[in-house]
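Standup notes
- DV: blocked on the single-chain target, sequence here:
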Amino acid sequence: MASRLTEISLDCHDPDLLADFWTAALDWVVLDREPGLVEIGPARESDQALLDAVRSGPVPPTMFLAAVPEDKVVKNRMHLDLSPVDRSRDEEVARLEALGATRADVGQSGEESWVVMADPEGNEFCVLRSLASGHFAL
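- DV (later): unblocked, structure below
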């Protein structure tokens, strides 16, 4: 059996600020909070149910937001891609901007089908094409 992706860690200055942004962006919840560390993810059942699910197949990972003293200096080497499921890409970009995200320039041409954005601490992510009915078909 292969390993499972279970957590994504993101270093930041203010885990609570980013938890507010990312839980609203992804419709997730805060799963655990302690000084300097917040875990967020999809609402879940008991620890045993989660362990059984992880053992049987992939599950959505959680995200750990960890306080660090260093500033983000350059473009992320890894980033998240978000796909809207109930609105257009542009409507989702506007919603995320209202939550505190900004558009980011990482050298894209402007012809891309995605929009590069940054969370409130400058971590880049992309908003891809919409998967909503009427916007995406197989």
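- Follow-up: The chain has two domains: 7-67, 80-127.
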